[in-house]
Amino acid sequence: MKKFINRPENVVEEMLEGFVIANAGKLRRLPTERVLVRKDAPVKGKVGIVTGGGSGHKPAFIGYIGKGLVDAVAVGDIFAAPPVQRVYEAIKAVDGGKGVLLCLGNYSGDVMNFGMAQELAQAEGIPVESVIVNDDVASSPKDRMDNRRGVAGEVILWKVVGALAEEGADLAKMKEVGTRAVFNTRSLGVAHTPCIMPSSGKPSFEIGDNEMEIGVGHHGEPGIKRMSMMSADEVTELITLQVIEDLPFQSGDEVTVLINGLGSTSLLEMYICFRKVAQILADHSIKIYRTYIGEFFTSMEMGGFSVTLTKMDDELKRLMDAPCDGVHFIQH
Amino acid sequence: MKKFINRPENVVEEMLEGFVIANAGKLRRLPTERVLVRKDAPVKGKVGIVTGGGSGHKPAFIGYIGKGLVDAVAVGDIFAAPPVQRVYEAIKAVDGGKGVLLCLGNYSGDVMNFGMAQELAQAEGIPVESVIVNDDVASSPKDRMDNRRGVAGEVILWKVVGALAEEGADLAKMKEVGTRAVFNTRSLGVAHTPCIMPSSGKPSFEIGDNEMEIGVGHHGEPGIKRMSMMSADEVTELITLQVIEDLPFQSGDEVTVLINGLGSTSLLEMYICFRKVAQILADHSIKIYRTYIGEFFTSMEMGGFSVTLTKMDDELKRLMDAPCDGVHFIQH
Questions:
Q1: Segments of B87-246 assigned E as strands
Q2: Is B218 a catalytic residue?
Q3: Distance between CA A267 and CA B302 in Å, rounded?
């Protein structure tokens, strides 16, 4: 296994140690749990935002802690949901009197543990709502959207509700706008190279030397189609058309485009693929409002990328444009 | 070759097309040459900053165009220096009346072409100076520093002179401070996986299944030692001690630390390695002033990372702290 790690069982702990030293100006760690919170949390008069999930997706989740983004992250082991107690402590640490919004991807472990933590906190009188991200169109047909996984679209949710919270919105409003942002967001990815699990040294999925898989999940979950490698334009068209058809995005719509690298795919390739996305959107008379290209939600060194589109409205535009100051996501 | 590209000979052109669409708010392309410039260039009363080099190092070089960083990039082919004419056009495009500073890595092609462009521009009456980056301690012994290659330390140079230019400094001052920043900057890297050249489909260097090489260059140039894979702590110690000894960095010094991922090495690993860097610096009573961790100067999907230290003084601190608004490097 060609990874720069020490003992596999210490990967998350040592990463967190480095992360907290490097970013001590922006965040701190709770003494009792693997929870990182914004340095100034709880922010009085602001709804607190808690997210989290398994480790191995950096810059997600902890790279999004900061002003205009999330207040706390409950950190799980590699690709494993954080335990209930951790999420519960995160909620308590960021409640500034206006309640807490939970943002999570639609994975059974996360849904269960965040749900139980929500109930515990509510029983203590803290108002808590949650928004579950299910933007991956590959993971289930449209008529069973509740079964869809969350992927890079969660970044859009954090940005939108993070900006809203800074404006002083209440919890109900945040749930409403966050839910709309998630509904308006659709993603589809492709991967040609697995990541290697630190614990086992084994790949997250098996794939042939000239193969790629459309819709592979962030943890190596099966996709919808395995194919021979294609040109950048061909694979981008295949993915982007499916994303467009899913909402569907229509002529006259304005969208935020997020091209997310899964790990080892270079920015060079992402820009080549984005060029094709832009052509396809122009052909459909869909206007690009904002563009984000880079590694926003990875699977360690997995090779591949995803295309995320979010349909904008005036409110979402304002929130996407707002400044933010996350560890790995800064916007003026 | 598992890359998302179209025809290999179009890689740079198509990447640039995507890049200009995505970042039209911040930059534009010259009509005649493969040169990208800040949208508002030339900025009157500000020294212009031109950099450039081969493609394949994204976010370097074009990701550093923006306020507080560089004004223009002359874009070469994959791992190939930009031609003289391109650098010359870049100089002319960003001269706002106070002259132009060239920032380049110490590679023979770049040094030759930037040098000739400098002479051409000077012959037309444009004051031009240059600072050549040679931070890679692996590439030559200390008594032949002029032979050393430039690696991730160039990011520090762009940040420092970019901030200085915004303050209104003159060309002589920029050369002086830029030269000092480069002298104060030392880097050393390790790689275990080559990148694949789009043109040939061949790896940039050959290496065994359990091997890593200390000091491999950004283009696969030979390093100083090939070894079996080690733990994160062991390899980080080996690299960091060599960097510390080179300047040498001493007890009481303050440093900026840059941990640069070469492509496929995950942020998770980089934070684990940074944790060890921080321990070593503490053991040496060297204080960390600022920390940057991520992919700042890659070799496409090469696997590995480098450690860069820059010795700070009051002036360099002020310049490192200044805000900047590059495409892929934003600081509040």
A1: 100-105, 128-133, 185-193, 211-214, 225-228
A2: no
A3: 12
Say if residues B286 and B253 touch (Cβ distance below 8 Å): yes
User: Which domains are delineated in chain A?
Assistant: 11-184+321-331 (3.40.50.10440), 185-312 (3.30.1180.20)
Phi, psi of A310 (to 5 degrees): -125, 125
Assembly ipTM: 0.98
A218 is catalytic: no
pLDDT (tens digit per residue) in A279-313? 999 999 999 999 999 999 999 999 999 999 999 99
Is residue B304 scored above 90 in pLDDT? yes
Nearest Cα residue to A266 out of A201, A210, A328, A193: A193
Measured in angstroms, the CA of B323 and the nearest CA of chain A are apart by 10
**pLDDT, tens only, B176-235:** 999 999 999 999 999 999 999 999 999 999 999 999 999 999 999 999 999 999 999 999
Which of these, B299, B221, B33, lies nearest to A267 by C-alpha position?
B299
Across the interface, whether the CB atoms of B58 and A14 are under 8 A apart is answered no
Interface mutation vs chain A, best among B15, B64, B268, most A CBs within 10 Å: B268
Q: pLDDT over 70 for what percent of chain B?
A: 100
- A293 to chain B, any CB pair closer than 8 A? The answer is yes
CA–chain centroid gap for B38, Å, is 18
Cβ-based neighbour number of residue A233 at 10 Å: 18
Element (H, E) at A93: helix A84-94
pLDDT at A1: 85
The first and second tokens of residue A150, run together, are 């969350």
List chain B residues with CB under 8 Å of A58.
266-268, 271
- Per-residue buried b or exposed e for A69-92, using 16+ beta carbons within 10 Å of the residue's own CB: bbbbbbbbbbbbbbbbbbbbbbbb
Contact A15 B305 (CB under 8 A): no
Q: What is the CA radius of gyration of chain B?
A: 19
| Cα angle, residue B66 at apex, residues B62 and B67 outer, rounded to 5° | 160
Sheet bearing B330-331, strands edge to edge: B66-67, B324-326, B330-331
Which of residues 186 through 245 in chain A touch B, CB cutoff 8 A? 192-193, 195, 210, 212, 229, 231-233, 235-236
